[in-house]
Design goal:
Elements: H1 7-16, H2 31-34, H3 37-53, H4 55-69, E1 74-80, E2 86-92, H5 117-125, H6 132-137, E3 142-144, H7 151-157, E4 173-175, H8 177-180, H9 190-205, H10 209-221
Parallel strand pairs: 3-4
Antiparallel strand pairs: 1-2
Length: 227
């Protein structure tokens, strides 16, 4: 469920890439997903239940993270949410602690030297994403939806894809259609980027409660798909 982007591609190919055609959503397409009381009910019950039932696992992982280097347990980052509004996403920390704040630098995949040994396992199992259940409970995210990107990446993507910000016409998700379809991991080409956006817009276009249920089950059964 984490997002990794090849830095060299973000700095070169993305900056010079022409806008690739991605079928935009018709006006009002996102309304059924965004306004569904059933979806929000599932989000509340699912996130609250998850936080309670997984609390022993949370406690264990938090202890292991602290013991490895005595650093902070959580990682917080600005992400783009519903209607382009910025919120802070929560994760279990998977990278080494830096002595001072550093400029944004996106992860370079599982072999990024900044990732700790424990962090590599947390990312491979997607357990580092579990604190986002708090974001879901707060209404900033949904259990299922397009994954929220760091605001710095959206600043690069938005001008190059006419329909890019339509992925934020619904709440971003803990998991999504793109993730279970394999459109996750490092972005190594313009087509990778287009493919992810297409999956996100297809999800909004085809949304139903049963689609969410299927995507949740696929995420639970295949948590490492796409790594």
């Amino acid at each position: 469920m984490s997002i990794h982007v090849n830095e060299r591609m973000a700095a070169s190919s993305v900056e010079t890439a022409p806008v690739l055609p991605v079928a935009p959503l018709a006006p009002g397409t996102a309304d059924s997903c965004l306004n569904s009381r059933t979806k929000r009910f599932i989000d509340i019950v699912g996130s609250a239940s998850g936080l309670v039932l997984l609390s022993p696992i949370f406690a264990l992982l938090m202890g292991l993270i602290f013991l490895q280097d005595r650093g902070p347990v959580f990682f917080r980052q600005k992400r783009t949410g519903l209607d382009g509004k910025v919120f802070h996403i929560w994760k279990l920390r998977s990278m080494s602690v830096t002595p001072k704040p550093t400029p944004f630098r996106q992860t370079r995949g599982p072999h990024d030297p900044r990732i700790t040994p424990l962090g590599r396992w947390l990312r491979a199992t997607s357990l580092d994403e579990l604190p986002q259940l708090m974001n879901v409970l707060a209404g900033e995210m949904s259990l299922v939806g397009p994954r929220p990107h760091p605001v710095e990446l959206d600043a690069s993507y938005k001008p190059r894809f006419e329909s890019y910000m339509q992925r934020y016409s619904v709440r971003p998700g803990l998991t999504g259609n793109a993730q279970v379809s394999g459109a996750r991991g490092p972005i190594n080409s313009r087509e990778d980027m287009r493919n992810r956006l297409q999956h996100d817009l297809d999800y909004i276009r085809d949304w139903s409660v049963w689609l969410d249920v299927r995507l949740i089950f696929r995420t639970v059964l295949f948590p490492s798909k796409g790594h």
